[in-house]
Amino acid sequence: MKIQCSDFIRDKIEEMQEFIDRLSGKFERVSILGTDVSGLTFRVSRTGTQLSDYGFKERGFVVRVLKNGHYFEYSFNEWDEIDHLVETFMDAFRANNDLVKEAELNYFDELGGDDQMEYESMETEVKTTLDDLSSAEIMERLTHLRDCVLAIDERILDVVFVINNVHTSKAYTSSLKALSQSYMLTDAMVQVTVKEGNQVQAEMQATSGMKGMEVIDELEKLAQKALNGALELLGAKRMKPGVYDVITAPEVSGLIAHEAFGHGVEMDMFVKNRAKAKDYMGKRVASDLVTMIDGANGVEQVASYLFDDEGTLGHQTVLIKNGILQNGISDRASAYRLGKEPTGNGRRESYERKAYARMTNTYFEKGTSKLDEMIASIQYGFLLEGMFSGMEDPKHWGIQCIIAKAREIVDGKLTGEIYSPVILTGYVPTLLQSISMVSDEIQLSGTGYCGKGHKEWVRVSDGGPYLKAKARLG
Question: Domains in the chain, start-ordered, CATH in brackets?
Fold first, then answer.
């Protein structure tokens, strides 16, 4: 089923163009972004069920204008008669312009991005929507699945299912562009918590993408996998700190990509001299086997789109090519300040918030090795699976990743011994330059949100192949 633009956005596109026409004679540049994000969150656990609105829903507009070397943005969420909208906007602009003059702010030339005619639209397709499967039917299926899982083992304390089903519609209009996009994103998660004696363990499994409610069909297998994983953690050992040969599963590879050269190449950090990567463009930062990508249009995941929140078409940006740091990712402002072309990474938490340089789908490219070959190549080490969180220091290239579990490898075989939790730390180039094998399969996932510091949350995905490297574990 094709996901069409919402009535709210579709009905405003012509009026958005009229608004642009009315202001074009007053400013050097004028653009407007309209956004409509709606959805539902389904949650089922031992203690009950909950159906609620999606937590990041929004509906509104943001106008951006250029006047005498200064950019000004104005957001609103009630579309009024055009004359009144123009009058309200001009009043806000005049008040802001007086403050700008008093502050003696730096001047801009025109930001890049709207320098050629572009008329494009995107409507994705999914298998199942809420028109095909009602909310009541979804809750019934999740409740039945919960009951089935709870009955499997008396050690199960709880099983939680969560599904977020989100429809996003956006339109961007300027004197040179008329863009629209409509897509559905769905993510589903199951977490199983078990107890034996005084020990409590849990494991989560998830799926995500440009999908519809067909994700519910994946939950039975994910629930069994989460249960098996939680039960094996009951016998987990503690990791002895040291440097080991490791193989990172795709979700761990993705965490490393996100933390190492995701935040570290957001180019507003270059402008502020907060990222070491600025001084390493064209230099080696990883082994020859490493190629890393960030892109909104290279894969279909939760951070895929036709255009970003500044009207720049999505790109597929090669961050690292054969170990050499090649590019960063940018919004229009950081690209302008650095003399670069914007990469389509200008993203807003909502129409009310500023656009920042943000990651989209960040991942390592696949290689040629087989997982079995990678395991067989290790005399003693670990296969790292699952992840909890990560931290990075773009200024000094430190990294810390909290991993769910490590499977012991001895003489090229998995022994069945589990270690948990595991903390991976180190210096980013040392870690990436130690990569000696890259598998021929790639997986991405995106069930979470990424912040800019402590705020500005946006959907991202990350992933990659299995990677063999040397890492410090504890």
Answer: 7-39+52-122 (no CATH), 125-170+182-233 (3.30.2290.10), 242-473 (no CATH)
